[in-house]
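Example 3.2
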Amino acid sequence: MAKKLVIKVTAGADAPERCSQAFTVAAVAVASGVDVSLWLTGESAWFALPGRAAEFELPHAAPLPDLLESVLAAGRVTLCTQCAARREITEKDVIEGVRIAGAQVFVQETLADETQALVY
């Protein structure tokens, strides 16, 4: 099994099942002791803002705020630089612990030894 898992979630409320799957996999991996890096891109970028995950609803799914909190507690959460800029989100706007970084950092993370990347 890969020792590191990089998950890029491109979906938000526009594709709730795909979004929920990404956050669920990230949280389960963290709980399993895997080094997780969750990237918020596209419509999932909004979940980097305080309170936005609480607005997300999907029947029979774990609450998104709980999943995000577990990843923030034991993994890394990154908001895509371009996605943030397009939505006028700055570092002062995001939840504590969320960093903003670009494609170069994503590429470095995904190409590291013993790393598996997933895109939702």
